[in-house]
Amino acid sequence: MKDGDVALAVRFSDIRVATAEQPESVAATVLDRRYLGTSEHLTLKLEAGGEVVQASVGAGVLAEGISRVFLIVADDAILMFEK
């Protein structure tokens, strides 16, 4: 691919959400939580850059009141598209 703008994408299922910082993790602030039966849909704002992203976790995985989490994405889960 020649130099140029690209867009990156990651599937919900490829984003791991942790409550403690880990190697290669990215800190995020929880903006919204929606309970969907067996899972929760999260709206998160990345601390570095301020982008808003979506993630999904199992219901009850995150305790009530948690406002800061850490996101982990495996390198092979990142999809890249030319703009």
Give a brief rundown of this model.
The chain is built from no helices and 7 strands.
Note the main sheet: 5 strands, antiparallel
| DSSP helix fraction | under 10%
| Strand order, largest beta sheet | 2-6-3-4-5
What is the chain-wise order of helices and strands?
Answer: EEEEEEE
CATH class: Mainly Beta
Work out the count of structural domains: 1
Q: How widely separated are the two ends?
A: 12 Å
Describe this structure in words.
With 83 residues, the protein is mostly beta strands. It has a single domain (6-82), classed as Beta Barrel (OB fold (Dihydrolipoamide Acetyltransferase, E2P)). The protein is 0% helix and 53% strand. It has no helices and seven strands. The strands form two sheets. A five-stranded antiparallel sheet has the order 2-6-3-4-5, with no helix packed on it. The chain starts with 5 loop residues before the first strand and ends with a strand. The relative contact order is 0.37. The mean pLDDT is 90.
